[in-house]
Amino acid sequence: MTNLEKFFTALNTLRANTECTVNGDIVTEDNFNNNIQWTTGVDGEMAITVPSCPHSELTWTAVKAEMDKL
Amino acid sequence: MTLTTINLAALGDTINLGTEVTGTLPTGNGGTGSTATTFVNAATNVTGTLATTNGGTGATSFTPGKLLQVQNFTTTTSITTTSTSFAATILTDQITPSATSSKILIFINGGRSSYQTGQSEGVQSLYVSVGGGGYSEVVSMMESHVNGGTNGYGKPATAFNYLHSPNTTSTLDYKVYIKTNTNGYVINSNNARICMSLMEIAA
Fold this sequence. Notes:
heterodimer, A: 70 residues, alpha+beta, 3-stranded antiparallel sheet, 3 strands, globular, B: 203 residues, mainly beta, Jelly Rolls, 4-stranded antiparallel sheet, 11 strands, elongated
């Protein structure tokens, strides 16, 4: 299982149907903070995105703990 | 009898080459075979059409080339989305047309689509920002149903060409947007390489 597979599985476990776009890998907290655009809404056909995670349950600590179980 | 040599030493005299030598030096002796004493300055005195029989083209003017500039972006970074509405990717490149009549020939090729946490049906679309403004869709690029290879589906690469007529000389920022119907949709997995090339074509 790759890091990205672990990341998205962890995301589903902690908060199902979370929408985001990931450029690159998610291995470190730095990756978590810089490689993800989180979708918070829709404007027409386009996603409204923010660079910082808007979901309180999705901290790096929690995501990493779930990834480490896999 | 033919005179072939002059023994100057025996004559005790000299020959002034600058004033006293005339005629044609044969090419076999390192000359040009020419008797001309004046020459054409090709840099300043040649105009008109050089005939094709003389190695020219017969043309009196030339049309400039149509390909004015090329921009290119390439990456091996994986790009994944779980967004069900179009989200921006890092697959982007910029070009500034030199004339409003120019067209932009766009190539986006390569990569390896895939999925995360289950098969997905992804869509790629090309967006553009003109002069730093907001992004709007140029054209839908492709839809692909990606899974592990069952049911006849696989993990297709992106293969997209498009001729855009932007009608502007402002900077154009082309960017690929992607979305999924469910699960994660990947357009560049396993360190595959995907490229965007932009070519300005004159009218």
